[in-house]
Amino acid sequence: MAAEFTIDPVSTGALKSPDLLEGEDYAVSFKITDNRTGTPLTGLRPSAWIDLRDPEKLTGGKDCRQKIQAFLQASLASRPEIDLNTYYILALNEDANISVIDPLMGYGTSKLLTMVMLKSPGEDWALSSDKKRLFVTMPKANQVAVVDTSTWKVVSSVDTGERPTRILFQQDQNICGSAAIQRTATKAA
User: Fold this and answer.
1) Which pTM value belongs to this model?
2) CA-wise closest residue to 76 among 45, 108, 100
3) Minimal CA–CA distance to 157: which of 184, 187, 126, 130?
4) Which domains, from first to last, does the chain contain?
């Protein structure tokens, strides 16, 4: 097998620097091929991490295997700098909250990462295309909550009129034709 790794800036702001910059978004890609034929291998589910390496020390195969084993154990004692396997499961609850669950890592017997507290129970939600904002309708509050997905906090609540239930993005990323919600969400960033 041969693995090709690329990391490219998502925004044009990061293109100005050849170095990776903290706070910028990057797309990480892997291409795994047969070493002899160059044919892409399919059906694989590789795990990947990015971690700091001591520049004074050469990392051998044994050290690398030990580090990977530690990462596979998903313990708080040995966490990589960047875990490319991380994902969350969200549950829009009947109460006025959203459960954010980390299925790979937990505390004790719980996999609950955090809870997003809402003003009233949510009815529907939509995730922005950049995945930085989650918009949640709250019919009893006559509002839409704007949740920052990096902190899992409500950054603003936007008045919508009577009992908003469904929420959708248009192709221009406005929500159901409501530019006011999108402008408010952008200002909250």
Assistant:
1) 0.65
2) 108
3) 184
4) 2-83 (no CATH), 89-188 (2.40.128)
